[in-house]
């Protein structure tokens, strides 16, 4: 897909708020190569006190942090350990962005659909495609049993309870941050449709330095 549109950016005030409140940053495409930009950005974020969760196809460890082979593997572990994801920082080619954002949204969509136990969440995560595969929303929703369901006003609203159980999958305040030089209009539209905060063609390290230096 050719991107003729301008990159999507958040306001400085919103980025400042995100960076001030964030604790955990998932880094998709973080490389163990010390010469890569992703490695330098991750090192910087660690120095600033953020918790880094690397996503790297070969797994292992990067910067003394366990590297997960996929987002769903990382999210499963985060759910099991009650860790909230605040930012997903992406270092992947522009053409890969729609499938990655789709996967993020599919994981996040679980938070308001039905009340699930932690174990059922982990089982469902196993059925989701990896970030390298297309997401079939209807197939996954049908598997979960809510694709044709209609809310019953006489039943108690369990969305708050479900959202608490699924905190690592709650995308209401999640920011997707796409590295400098990368952008994709389709990915931006997907993020907008799911009410995700979305910043692209932007280096989180450089923006941190620029925004907080302005306060000095």
Automatic annotation (TrEMBL):
InterPro entries per UniProt: CoA-bd (IPR003781), NAD(P)-bd_dom_sf (IPR036291)
Top-level taxon of origin: Bacteria
Matches recorded under Gene3D superfamilies: NAD(P)-binding Rossmann-like Domain
Domain CoA-binding span(s) in chain numbering: 19-108
Pfam families, per the entry: CoA_binding_2 (PF13380)
Record PANTHER family: COA-BINDING DOMAIN-CONTAINING PROTEIN (PTHR33303:SF2), CYTOPLASMIC PROTEIN-RELATED (PTHR33303)
The protein, known as: CoA-binding domain-containing protein
Species assigned in the record: Helicobacter trogontum
């Amino acid at each position: 897909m050719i991107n003729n549109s301008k990159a999507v950016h958040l306001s400085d005030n919103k980025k400042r708020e995100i960076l001030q409140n964030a604790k955990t940053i998932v880094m998709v495409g973080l490389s163990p190569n010390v010469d890569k930009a992703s490695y330098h950005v991750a090192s910087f974020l660690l120095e600033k006190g953020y918790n880094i969760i690397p996503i790297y196809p070969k797994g292992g460890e990067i910067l003394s942090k366990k590297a997960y082979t996929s987002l769903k593997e990382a999210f499963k572990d985060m759910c099991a350990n009650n860790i909230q994801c605040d930012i997903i920082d992406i270092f992947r080619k522009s053409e890969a962005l729609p499938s990655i954002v789709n996967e993020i949204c599919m994981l996040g969509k679980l938070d308001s659909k039905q009340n699930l136990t932690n174990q059922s969440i982990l089982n469902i995560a196993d059925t989701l495609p990896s970030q390298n595969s297309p997401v079939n929303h209807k197939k996954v929703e049908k598997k979960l049993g809510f694709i044709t369901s209609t809310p019953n006003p006489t039943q108690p609203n369990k969305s708050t309870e479900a959202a608490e159980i699924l905190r690592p999958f709650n995308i209401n305040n999640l920011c997707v941050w796409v590295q400098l030089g990368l952008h994709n209009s389709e990915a931006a539209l997907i993020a907008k449709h799911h009410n995700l905060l979305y910043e692209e063609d932007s280096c989180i390290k450089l923006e941190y330095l620029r925004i907080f230096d302005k306060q000095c």
